Amino acid sequence: MNSEGFAVFDTALGRCGIAWREQLVVSSQLPVASENALRASLRRYAPGPATPPPHIREAIVAIVALLAGEPRDLAEIPLDMSLVPEFPRRVYVAARKIPPGETLSYGELARKLGEPGAARAVGQALGRNPFAPIVPCHRVLAAGGKTGGFSAHGGRTTKLKMLAIECAAIGGQLPLGLSGKA
What we know:
There is one protein chain. This protein has helices spanning 35-43, 54-67, 86-95, 106-112, 119-127, 155-165; strands at residues 4-11, 14-21, 24-29, 104-105, 140-141. The protein is α+β, with helices and mostly antiparallel strands. A 3-stranded antiparallel β-sheet has the order 1-2-3, sandwiched between helices. Helix 4 packs across helix 5 (119-127). The longest helix is centred in the N-terminal third of the chain and has 14 residues, at 54-67. The termini are far apart.
């Protein structure tokens, strides 16, 4: 059994990746411009590709299901945040509490952290999220129900697709004009 490594896998949004060390996920990645870029990103966290152990296979199945439109909460997947600075770690922990299909604004998340003036810092932390979609940064929006930015490949379009998959309303409307799951 491989105690560390990474794997790439197909999802409804494209090729995603996950890296692990022992029992913890050290990174999960949404699709990027190319598989080479995805693998290069994952190599920052693990030495190379490996066969995922059972708990990582379970995480992959859950990610694939979520991105295919099945209601899944990835909050129980254990993460290694030991290298994440304190403020972003707090942001990621709080973001993981947002259920599928629901959203918060950057300001609302900042207030939940007891940092009411830190909306921009929350956005910056989420823009560097090394655990997407396990840390569901796509569920955090700009003020007034606007989508805000999204650092994954495809930007706001990818964010809207992920919100549509979860049937999350933005400003009272489903993203992309959808009336159900994507």
